[in-house]
Amino acid sequence: MKKQFDNVPDRPSQIPSEYRDPLTGLFNLNGFFYGMEHISGRYVHSAIIHFDVDDFKSFNEQYGFMGGNQFLQSVAEELRIIFIDSILARIGGDHFIAATMAELAEDRIVAFQNRMKTHTRNMQISVKAGIYLPAPYEKGNTALFMDRAKLACDQIKHTYDKSYSIYNPGMEKSRQFRHSIISGFDKALSSGYIKPYYQPHVRLLTGERCGYEALSRWIDPEHGMISPAVFIEVLEDAHLIHLLDLYIIEKVCEDLRFVMDKGLNALPVSVNLSRLDFYLCNVFVEIETIRKRYDIPAKYLHIEVTESALTDEGDFLLSEIPRFHKAGYEVWMDDFGSGYSSLNNLMSYPFDLLKIDMNFLREFETNPKSHIILAAIVRMGKKLGIHTLAEGVETQEQYDFLREIGCEKIQGYFKGRPAPFDRELADKVISRHSVDLTEDGSVTEPIELSKYYDQIGTLNVLSNSPLSPKSLLDATTHPLAILEHTSDSSKVYYLYANDSYREYIKALGLDVDWSQPLMPFTVDDLLNNPVYGALIRRCRETGQKEVEHALIGGTAADVQLKILAEHEGRIAYAVTIEHLMDPQAYEHSFDLTQRSADRSS
Length: 601
Ligand code: C2E
Ligand code: MG
Ligand code: MG
Hints:
The chain is α/β, with parallel strands linked by helices. 39% of the residues lie in helices and 22% in strands. The protein has an eight-stranded mixed beta barrel, surrounded by five helices. The longest helix has 27 residues, at 56-82. Ligand C2E is lined by residues 199, 215-216, 227-229, 232, 241, 244-245, 248, 272-274, 334-335, 358, 391-394, 411-413, 418.
């Protein structure tokens, strides 16, 4: 092998103690400077590589201080093996540095990282590397070289797809920007540059607005609007993210209190937590303190955590989710499907709702596979008893498709972009009935009904036998509808009707406008009808699915009915019609009265 540094000490004992890192036997920081100056004058042709263990903290937490130390020792050992004849140092914590031949740098990094896989004990940690290649004219500025190598390394922190990066001058700019975010953060909070924007959640069964997500926005007088996609990561790196998240929660509680004090209809708001929040503070206790200060019931706050919160850090959420549940919060999994171990997570963590990652919808028009995956996620959610919300809905087609497959809620530009809460506007429209956080005339769902609709939403509309508890078959061909009436209305509405139900109604010659889906029957028709009336009465007694054999226009059909949910006289039924023969055989003027006549004849 070509040798670069002839006199690199290859045994720790050869390094004077003031230059030696006692844990690994490599050079320490001073030793590295010493080595660069004295061991070889030829380092101008070498690469400076900075190594940083991504997520070393979680390794330490899982395996303790001793385990962490052993890991650092194995990093040093592997470096010694691969970076033979190079200058190697541990310069503090989990940071290492190497000066090695430029043309070998990348290959050596890859070889080293491959060897490290045997030491990571199945955890999602890796040793990231940043390379600086000094130009021949840049002599002797070791500190600057190290700084640039570190900067290159920092660029790929917490990324899954990159294991090393090479410095380029553009990185300085991004560092300056990051610096301005960190140094300007306090002022941004105290001056109100950062605030929550609210994006509506819409219940697909009713089309009503049923909640919001609070998304932070930083509107800076100098830099303009800074996207959370940019500043969240910087604040995470700087370990300031919990301050942002708690601040946003405080602002949300403030806004909710305002709405409640005005006697308006407040809707629940979901807030985003970073996985780091759980380390940087006692996030449950902090949120409880804020919530109680504003006297907001916990059901108005939903906690969103991303999958990475689970994959990186092991099991802390196993104890945190029940704590939130016990206090009355819902806990939602954000960006479901974007990580790589989503399905494992579902087995372990008791989430209330999956927010389906918007990337599935980005391919909705071009890739039919996305439809299959979306339907499968919704179906799986139902079987696991977890609600579903699709993010990033932008078109009517996407909206209709998600409704048809039984997805319960959506969020996306189609139904509203994130917007600030306007107190003045709320004040002006105070006399109106259904006013909420961002008044624009949409109908909102009273929070008392959210559990009722959640319960209806658990029906697996894609099942072949949706009313049987343990149906394992998929893809229904039977007509299925969900009907609803309230105690004070004589009318019956369709909350849902699948394609075959709509076909069926059409074939019967009945005219239903599915954009205003009023049933052609009244409550009295329904209750007086021998088939439906009997089914409803039996269902109320047994609480189970009930079946009635009906003769419709001389053709036999099984009508199945089940009560899905009830709330203060409001009641929702699921109806399926099976063993249907050729619908053309029915009389044109089919209606419930007709059917009862058929039956009695
Ligand atoms: P997220 O929680 O998954 O939020 C959804 C993101 O999708 C938001 O981006 C939202 O504006 C965007 N979005 C909503 N509907 C559509 C749509 O129809 N089409 C498209 N293309 N995009 C849509 P935003 O506000 O830029 O936030 C990005 C991410 O930053 C959030 O993703 C969340 O993970 C994080 N974030 C935002 N605010 C906070 C916060 O206060 N704390 C923490 N820890 N993270 C936050
Ligand atoms: Mg979110
Ligand atoms: Mg999301």
